Amino acid sequence: MTSVAVETRYPPPPVLRTADIAAKTGLLLLVGLAVLFPGMSHLDGKGLAPRAISYPLVAFAIPFIWFTWWRPRASFPWTADFLVTIVCFSDMFGNFLNLYDTIEPFDNILHFVNTGLLAAAVIMLTMHRTSSLGAVLERGLAFGVSAALVWEIAEYFTFLRWSPERMGAYADTLSDMALGALGSVLAAIWVYALWRRGYLAEVAPQLELAQQERVDEVPR
Asked: How far apart are alpha carbons 189 and 117 in whole angstroms?
């Protein structure tokens, strides 16, 4: 077991590690500024409190899981952690720049991209790189549609039901969920294609030991 654990430790990618730490730092800074100066964040009346609570929890979920369960047998999954962190950061940053109100397609772009990034992170963390395309697509679509649904429910109960925007919310919800599903499918294909080309081998080292044990159990 010791030799396998050593084999599942990879050197941290310098660029991703720096970007991940910077994104986490920026997220905490933006959350702090939003709490102190709600008007600056353009989140006043748009679910500021839920965002201020949930985004740091989501951004630090993978470090917590790694430190609690994976640390003795695997290196830190910097790539997946960065994808999750940048999703939280981009929403806060977009609100601070008021991009949601000044650039009409910005909301649609973020639903498409961010749901895809989250789906990619989930696939990388929960599936071995030898998984089939069908299995990867199934995982990506299942997560993407579920995540899009949860977001729309949370959005409605946190601020949309009191907002004048609720009159057109039905069409917006359908388009957001469709874009999230499409982003998840494309993310799944992207991850699978990179796996087939030999990339992302170091993304989920915590899965290598279990995969090796399954291979060893196969009768020869």
From this structure: 12
Distances (CA, A) of 32 to 49, 55, 56, 125, 167: 11, 12, 11, 29, 32
- Say which residues have a Cβ less than 8 Å from residue 204's Cβ, sequence separation at least 6: 77, 80, 124, 125, 126, 127, 128, 129
- What does the H/E/C string look like for 15-60? HHHHHHHHHHHHHHHHHHHHHHCHHHHCCCCCCHHHHHHHHHHHHC
pTM of the shown model: 0.86
Q: Calculate the CA dihedral of residues 87, 107, 100, 170 and round it to 10 degrees.
A: -130
d(CA 89, CA 43): 14
- The rounded Cα 137 to chain-centroid distance in angstroms is 16
pLDDT digits (tens, 9 = 90+) for 29-57: 999 999 999 889 888 777 888 899 999 99
Give the torsion sign (CA, 67, 142, 99, 44).
negative
| Pair of tokens at residue 27 | 């997220």
Is the CB of residue 115 less than 8 Å from the CB of residue 136? no
100 close to 109: Cβ distance less than 8 angstroms: no
Helix axes 106-126, 133-158, angle to 10 degrees: 130
